[in-house]
Specification:
This protein is of the alpha+beta class and 293 residues long. The protein is 18% helix and 29% strand. It contains 5 helices and 20 strands. The strands form 6 sheets. It has a 5-stranded mixed β-sheet with strand order 5-6-2-1-12, with no helix packed on it. The radius of gyration is 37 Å and the shape is elongated.
Length: 293
């Protein structure tokens, strides 16, 4: 199976060259060319783009100058032991101290032509874009064996994103008014979220001081405390919940959609409680007559 792909998206042709591009002399990376035209480096590492499907991709690698000999820094100081010029072999076999030779001589070099490297295909066309480089979510693709060592293409194949339950758990723990988040609480599969929600109009109650045995203390004063409504929410996210897709982008969209769904449930559960019904959803008997005066 061919393990090289060119990605096509809206008139842009994108190639992953990666290790095909050697480091140039002096550091850095050379710019590859598609049919003689410089390619554009993309944000995703190793990816390069061009405006057409390339017939030939080449990289021009510079070569360091070749040392052709050594010349005395001061020609007037030439002697039998230290001639005006030395060949590379004479330099290597000279019996003088190496530091002394470097003090007396300078290197003579000759520029070398660049080496042109052709990056061979064939390239199989796929519709898509390079993988995102700002997304920490794990992608587990279902791949042909030939592509298991080509992570630059993994996002284009079917697979799944694990870790969704932990993601929603962290989301719930950071949500307003959430007091506890339990996993598979009391035998119920999923995430149980306990919320401590304020009332729309502050509700308080007097609580007497109590002794260590729980009885009401006669010597100490009690205190007035703010009362909150307790709510419990069960989110149907379990340990086997995975987000699947025919490609990573599809799964990422589903992940975001499901995240929005559970965020909306948490938002609804954290709405302030009704002070008239004490958060129970009904008004006690006789309230209508009292409200009429």
């Amino acid at each position: 199976m061919n393990d090289r792909f060119v990605l096509h998206d809206d008139g842009v042709w994108m190639y992953h060259l990666g290790a095909d591009i050697p480091t140039v002399y002096g550091g850095g990376l050379p710019v590859p060319e598609a049919d003689g035209q410089p390619m554009i480096g993309l944000q995703a590492p190793g990816w390069w783009a061009t405006d057409h499907e390339a017939a030939t991709i080449t990289v021009r690698r510079s070569v360091p100058p070749a040392t052709t000999g050594y010349r005395l820094r001061d020609d007037s100081a030439a002697s039998t032991k230290f001639p005006a010029a030395l060949t590379p072999d004479e330099w290597e076999n000279h019996d003088a101290d190496r530091d002394l030779l470097w003090d007396l001589y300078t290197t003579v070099t000759e520029p070398q032509p660049d080496v042109v490297i052709a990056i061979d295909g064939p390239w199989l066309r796929l519709d898509g874009t390079p993988p995102p480089d700002d997304d920490s979510r794990t992608w587990v693709p279902r791949l042909p064996d030939a592509l298991r060592n080509r992570p630059e293409y993994h996002h284009l194949f079917p697979g799944h994103m694990p870790g969704f339950r932990d993601h929603i758990k962290r989301l719930a723990e950071r949500h307003r008014h959430v007091e506890h988040v339990f996993t598979d609480y009391q035998g119920r599969r999923g995430l149980t979220v306990i919320l401590k929600v304020p009332f729309d109009q502050p509700v308080t109650e007097y609580r007497p001081a109590r002794n260590n045995n729980g009885s009401v203390s006669r010597s100490r004063k009690g205190r007035t405390v703010t009362v909150y409504a307790r709510r419990e929410l069960l989110l149907d996210v379990h340990d086997r919940t995975v987000i699947q897709g025919d490609a990573r982008a599809e799964a990422a969209a589903r992940w975001d959609e499901q995240t929005a769904h559970y965020t909306a449930l948490l938002d609804e559960a954290s709405v302030a409680a009704c002070s008239h019904c004490k958060g129970h959803g009904y008004v006690p008997s006789g309230a209508e007559a009292v409200s009429r005066g």
